[in-house]
Design brief:
With 393 residues, the protein is of the alpha/beta class. The chain has helices spanning 30-42, 52-59, 65-76, 80-90, 93-117, 128-157, 171-179, 222-237, 250-258, 304-315, 329-350, 355-372, 379-386, and strands at 6-10, 21-25, 159-164, 197-203, 206-212, 240-246, 267-272, 293-295. The two termini are 28 Å apart. The protein binds guanosine-5'-diphosphate and magnesium ion.
Length: 393
Amino acid sequence: MIDKGLLLAMPGPHSYTSEDVVEFHVHGNQSLLSLLMEVLVSLGIRPAEPGEFTYRAFTYGRMDMTQAEAVEALVLAQGDAARRQALRQLTGGLSSHLEPMEESLKSLYLKIEARLEFSEDGIPSLDLPKFEKEVAGVKDELQKLLGSYRQGKVIREGLAVALVGPPNVGKSSLLNALLETDRAIVTPMAGTTRDVVEGEIRLKGVRVRLFDTAGIREAKNVVEVEGIRRSRQVIEEADVIFWLVDASNPEESLQELKNSSLPLERTWFLFNKMDLVHTKNPWEGKSVPQDRCLVLSCQTGKGVEGVLSKVEDLIQTPASGEDVVLTSARHQKEVQQAFHALENVQGLIKGKQPYELWAEELKEAALAIGRIRGRNLPATAFEDIFTKFCIGK
Ligand SMILES: Nc1nc2c(ncn2[C@@H]2O[C@H](COP(=O)(O)OP(=O)(O)O)[C@@H](O)[C@H]2O)c(=O)[nH]1
Ligand SMILES: [Mg+2]
């Protein structure tokens, strides 16, 4: 006797993998579990590889590759939006979007292939305008999917927001205000924050990670220099950069900006300490894009809401449950490949190149989309995908 427990028998083909499956439910005691495993192994059973159950489910056709990958995404989902996204993929949302595209690509390919093989048999000549329109249609769909990838990444991994700027402009104060705690040390002394301080909030079901950084300036102290190096690292990796400006002394903050070479398409300018000034538009006459400026005061709390809603705007989760979003780098790579192949087809048509070359590209596009759903994947790809899974899934 090892334990008293429950044995669940799940006959195929209705089990998770489609095979006959038995589950032991026992008490969660480590030595008990080891003993039970010992007994089972002595009976010729072995522990599962990571992702093996899902791999088997895939092999038996219980799910396609996008659904198998969604299992792992669901386990790892951070936040509500990521969970919904994974669930949509698990129930076939992405596949049902890809299937008609693959079909269209195949039929385009076959149209060309038929004319290659039976050129003398009097097949009507190709309706070129219609053909070109169909190619452009699929290409548009692929482009939309590619556009959704960044959005998908935010849903899955969350949004990283960097609070940067020179010392003493109120970066740590803003972090605390956004987190509604005293997470970071705030003092009137320049150079208080030396390390990156991280905090997390949730907006629209998405994880938003906030990074408070050491103020960027010419520093001699080795600790501060290291702090500034880390600030630059955070800037490098952030999705959104908030460059803080002391509204009561904007020149200095903006001077430092010139030396910092920020990626402007990801940067917004927050004029803090508005309680100290009388102007409404402190950016006037300054060389910053006006439509990227916000005002606030961490002291009074006025404007902090505005910063939060700016972050919300940047999240853009799919509004309806219908939107299909690419979340995986593997999928993105294949869609990109298909997209390029269709670009090539368009070039070949324009250049009046032979059908053989069109067929080659169309086939490549169809195969790339098929690979997303797990068709014709090289054996090594399965290993790459499933070894990332947790054991027992
Ligand atoms: N008057 C005023 N002072 C502020 C405001 N925000 C921060 N401070 C003060 O500015 C100083 C530096 O703030 P801190 O958050 O440490 O700046 P950091 O170096 O950029 O992290 C502290 O004395 C804060 O109390 C604000 O909105 N108004
Ligand atoms: Mg600070």
